[in-house]
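Quick sanity check, NAD-dependent succinate-semialdehyde dehydrogenase:
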Amino acid sequence: MAYATTNPATGETVKTFETATDEQIRDAVARSAAEYRSWRCVPVAERAKLMHRMAELYRERQDALAALITEEMGKPAAQAVGEVQLVADIYDYYADNAAEFMKGRTLTPSTGGEARVVLDSTGVVLGIMPWNFPYYQVARLAAPNVMLGNTVLLKHAPNVPQCALVQEQLFREAGFPEDVYLNIFASNEQIADIVIPDPAVQGVSLTGSERAGAAVAATAGKNLKKVVLELGGSDPFIVLDDQNVERTVKQGVFGRMLNNGQACTNAKRFIVLEDAYDTFVENFAQAVQGVTPGDPTDQKTFLGPLCTVAARDGIMEQVQDAVDKGATVLAGGKKLDKPGAWMEATVLADVTPEMRAYTEEIFGPVAVVYKVKDADEAVELANSSPFGLGGSVFGADEAAALEVAQRVDSGMVFVNEVTGTAPDMPFGGVKRSGVGRELGPFGIEEFANKKLIHTPKKK
C-alpha cells in the first residue's frame, strides 16, 4: 500500500511515505496498550485541559492545516477552513462535556439497594479513516475516546499521509503523552492480521466503503471486537412543492456539490413530486450548470477536482452506463480535458433500475432527479435504497414535511435543510450505511464499558 500525496488538481505526486514494517506495527500496538494502563488513571479534568489545547492549536493553525487538506484531496480552500474549525469545536465539546457523560445514570433496582451505570474506558481503539474529511473523521473518534481514557491507533487513507502525520504531531504538541494517539502507516493486511486480533485492541471504528466495512466487520467479529461503521450513503432530497423553489434549489446545489460531491451525506437522489418537478428541475439544472470547477486553493472556488483520477474515471463510468441505457443529461456529464481529476457538475434524469446510478452511490458531483406522484411514492423511492445515512425533506408545510421525514428510513433526516453535522448531534446510519453512532453524548458510549456499580440496601 503506497502512502503518497498526489495533488488531484495537477496530478503531481508531491511526497511519498514508507508503509510500516510488521515489527513497527506490533510495537505501536504494544506502546498504545502500555500507555492505556496509565492514561486511564489520569483525571478527566486534566484530560480536558489538554483537549482544549488541541482545539486552540487547530484554530491557531487553521490556514496551514486547511492547505494540507486542499493539497492532498482537493477540498476547496474555504471548505477546508470550515472543516478545521469544526474539528476544533469537536475537541472543545468533549473537553467540556465528557465528565458529565461519564457519570452515566442512576437506576432504581427492583431488588433494592442503589445502582449506577457509569462509562469506563476499555483499552486501545483502532480507527480506520477516509480521505474526504481527513481531520473531522478522526476527531469524531479521537475526541470522545481519549477523553474517556482509551488510547487510539489511527490508520488513515493512503492519499492523505501529511494530514495523518500532522494530527499525531498536534496531540503531542498539545501535551498528551506520546502514545495516547499513534498514527500507523499500515497495510490492510497488517490491520487484519496484526492489529485487530491483538487482545489489547478493544474496538474498531471505520468510515469508508461498504466493501471495507464488511471486511473489517468480519475480521473484528472473528476476534470478538466491537465495531462502529459509517459507510456509504445515497441520501434522498425530497421536494414536496415549488413554493420556495429558489431556496430549495440553492440548498440542493450546496448539498450535492459540497466537498466536490464526495461526502457520504451529500444529497444524491432528488425525489420531486410531479406538481413541482418541472419548475424545480429546470432551475436546479440551470444552477448546477453554473457551478464551474475551479482552483481549489482559491477562496472563491466551490467545486474543485475529485480526489484521484481513478475516482473521477469511476464516476464517469457510472454516468456513461446511465446514458447508454437511456438516461438524460440535464447538465454537465463530461470530464475536463486537463491534468488532474476534473469533471463537470452533472445532473441526470430518467434513471431506471437497470442502471448503476439507480442503486449505487455516486461519490462525486452528480445529482440524479426523479419524478414521483405523491409523498407516499417519494417515501417508497427514498426507502428503496440499500443505504440509510442521511436525508432531507423540503416543503412549505413544515408539518407535512416532518411527517414525511419520520417515514424515511435513515439515521438522520433534516427538514428544510440539507444533512449537516455538529459536535452535539449524533451521526450515523442504518441498513448498509453502517452501525453505531458518533458525536454527541452517544459518541462517547460506543467504546465504553457501561459499568454497573451496585450497593446493597442499607439496613
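Posting the structure with no commentary besides this: The first strand starts at residue 3 and ends at 6.
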